[in-house]
Amino acid sequence: MVMEEGGQRDRGRRAPQNFDAIYLSTYRTACKLRFIQKRCNLHLIDIYNVIEAVRDAGLNAVELNAGISVTRLENLVSSLFNQLSKRLPTTHTINPQQSTVLLVEFLLAAIECRLTVFSVKAMLATLCGGKLVDKLRYVFSQVSDSNGVLVLSKFDQFLREALKLPTAVYEGPSFGYTQTLARSCFPQQKRVMLNMFLDIVADPPQCLIWLPLMHRLANVEHVYHPVSCSYCRSNGMTGFRYRCLRCRGYQLCQNCFWRGNTSGSHSNKHQMKEHSSWKSPATKIGRALSRTLGCVSSREPPHPIYPEEPERTLNLANIIPSRPVGNTSEAMLDFLCFSVDSPSRQDDEHKLIARYTTRLAETEGTGVIPTRSINFDANKQKRELIAQLESKNREILAEIKRLRAEHDAACQTSPEKSSTNPTLLAELRLLRQRKDELEQRMSSLQESRRELMVQLEGLMKLLKAQAAGSSHSSPSRPSPSAVRSVGAVPSQAHMYPPQDSLAGVGGDVQEAFAQGRTHFSPTWQP
pLDDT tens digit string along 140-183? Predict the structure, then answer.
């Protein structure tokens, strides 16, 4: 085991060195950071998971320039991977402790100086997985003011922290920080809002060109092209495919193109086109004809158009406390379902059913018909029990309907409004999780109702059986019509299976009591 771990560690050290053979600095930097992202399992964590972890650690209310200890950083990263291990399926497991150690060591090596809240947020937001537009929106929320306008000094600070990542993988000469970078990214004397920020940074500027490329690398890792490479002659390509615009039919796989491999009359100076998907010749011809005839719709914008003015965020600090997700969900579930999950209600219900079942069993075991007073009291208690159970059934149905109405209303929040605020998105994820838990609770209540109706059905059959037995053992011989009516009751009992309402069961039970009073009436008269 130790040798195996050592071998894996050695391979982890050697793998980044192989990327040095890539002669294009942009691809070299993106490949190195993508390797670190996968090695630390950060590709399985999106920006919303980072926001939740930062909020649970209490760093959302701290000043961005405030310092943070190494212990607090370790706790933050540990909570990230512990929550990830709970979300992953059993077929895909990770080692949270190992991932925590690797990521913390890399962050400390990259920062090298004072560790601040902003540096941790910037690096985690840059290295995590998920959609690029979501990460950029979170970055803009950290570098803009309350009016939704970019603050250039804050963006300059973000560039300073984000460009420490290429420097940490020895790409500082190509993507190092300078004081003029922030001013060169945006037009002068112009207010930069969210949509302009997304257009410019996603385009991107030269200093951040490796960031969208890292996301494109993740998207094409499993894309297969059923053509052979013109240099290495491999049967099929995986990842990017590069086609020369001068040499007809000349195509290179990403490994050969990144390392400058050429053959024949092709040269590295020729213009190449990068392909991230495979299209058959028939598809290309159909696409060309549609474009010629004007049947193809115009390209969609690279990102949705967001409102210029930021929406005011809701202060949810007094509604949902800053604590782990599981505890918050359990607290809200207990609060909403208090009236349904009352212990006294369940205890009384089960006690009544157990008491009545025991009394019926004792009556059948002795075979003795109770006296007039006992029969009268027992029948009265049975009628009261049936009425109570039917009332409880109606209450359960009302509670289920109320809970569904509340959560349907809570889930009708507009996604366009919620998508503009990362904090509100995190709260909505909590509400969705609570909705799922409440739906499970309602399904358990329905299962309890079904069991209750089965018990009532059994009680009804026992009542009818008792009425039939008492009619045969009575001194006064009943009329043949009465005997036929009693004998027909069990066959009719099968006509009322358990349903959502207990009206059918209650009607059969009342009919059984009516027949019982008819048979016992001679003994009650003086």
Answer: 999 999 888 999 999 999 999 999 999 999 998 999 888 888 88
3-state helix, strand, coil split of the chain in percent (to 5) is 65, 5, 35
Contact 106, 73 (CB under 8 A): no
450: how many CB neighbours lie within 10 A of its CB? 13
519's tokens: 């048979």
DSSP conformation letters of 48-109: HHHHHHHHHTT-TTS-TT-B--HHHHHHHHHHHHHHHHHHS-TTS---HHHHHHHHHHHHHH
Query: What are the tokens at 88?
Result: 């992953």
Cβ distance 410 to 435 under 8 Å? yes
| 5 has a pLDDT exceeding 80 | no
- CA separation for the pair 378, 355 (Å, rounded): 11
Q: What angle do the packed helices 132-143 and 47-56 form, to 10 degrees?
A: 40
Is 160:182 a contact under the CB 8 Å cutoff?
no
Q: Which two tokens stand for residue 409?
A: 């209303």
**All CATH 3.30.60.90 domain ranges in the chain, comma separated:** 224-280
Q: Answer yes or no: are the C-beta atoms of 384 and 391 closer than 8 Å.
A: no
Token code pair at residue 440:
């499970």
The two three-digit tokens of residue 382, written as one number: 């049975």
Average pLDDT on 38-55 reads 94
Q: Name the phi and psi angles at 116, rounded to 5.
A: -120, 165
Q: What ranges in 128-171 are assigned the alpha helix state H? A: 132-143, 152-162, 164-168
Q: Which CATH number fits domain 2-219: 1.20.1250.20, 1.50.10.100, 3.40.50.300, 1.10.238.10?
A: 1.10.238.10
Give the contacts of 61 (CB within 8 A, at least 6 positions apart).
none
Query: pLDDT at position 167, please?
Result: 94
- Distance, in Å, from the CA atom of 115 to the CA atom of 93, rounded to the nearest integer, reads 31
Tell me where in the chain the CATH 1.10.238.10 domain(s) lie. Answer: 2-219
What is the pTM assigned to this prediction?
Answer: 0.55
Q: Are 64 and 117 in contact (CB under 8 A)?
A: yes
- The pLDDT score that the predictor gives to residue 54 is 94
* Gap between the Cα atoms of 423 and 52, Å rounded: 8
Separation of alpha carbons 78 and 98, rounded Å: 10
CATH architecture of 224-280: 2-Layer Sandwich (3.30)
225 bridge partner residues: 237
Residue with tokens 């607090």: 72
With contact defined as beta carbons under 8 Å apart, do 68 and 115 qualify? yes
DSSP states along 323-357: S-HHHHHHHHHHHHTTTTS-HHHHHHHHHHHHHHH
> 197 and 174 in contact (C-beta within 8 Å)?
no
